[in-house]
């Protein structure tokens, strides 16, 4: 299993747009074979940071999912939320492998 951790710097004044963006990506990851562990939004402290975690069975499975970016109409529409709203100022991805209690 490979887990993608996405670190976001967001515009706190556009949190509703970010939540719309996040809901679409949670749906798309799940629909295309991944497990979405959720988005983690600011509660207190720094108000411009958010995180997302999702997993695929392998890096190959993740790469198959990535082939849909910019091509599949649903992926394009989900990305358009980010582009048009300006809710995401910056993001980067880190790939990790989980060490689970029963693993």
Plain-language structure description:
The chain contains three helices and four strands; from the N terminus they run E-H-E-E-H-H-E. By secondary structure, it is of the alpha+beta class. It has one domain: Alpha-Beta Plaits (2-Layer Sandwich), CATH 3.30.70.100. It has a four-stranded antiparallel β-sheet with strand order 2-3-1-4.
Keywords:
31% strand, alpha+beta, 103 residues, 3 helices, 37% helix, single chain, Alpha-Beta Plaits, four-stranded antiparallel sheet
How many beta-strand segments? 4
Distance between the termini: 11 Å
Q: What overall form do the CA principal axes indicate?
A: globular
How large, in whole angstroms, is the Cα Rg? Answer: 14 Å
Query: What's the number of structural domains?
Result: 1
What would the CATH topology be?
Alpha-Beta Plaits
Query: CATH class, please?
Result: Alpha Beta
Largest sheet: 4 strands, antiparallel
Give start-end ranges of low-pLDDT stretches. none
Q: Spatial order of the strands in the main sheet?
A: 2-3-1-4
Would you tell me the overall average pLDDT? 94
Report the β-strand fraction as a percent range. 25-35%
Q: Determine the structural class based on helices, strands and strand pairing.
A: alpha+beta
Helix content: 25-40%
Number of helices: 3
InterPro entries: Dimeric_a/b-barrel (IPR011008), NIPSNAP (IPR012577)
Domain NIPSNAP: 7-99
Protein name: Catalase
Quick take:
This protein has 103 residues and is of the alpha+beta class. It is built from three helices and four strands, in the order βαββααβ. Strands 2-3-1-4 form a four-stranded antiparallel sheet.
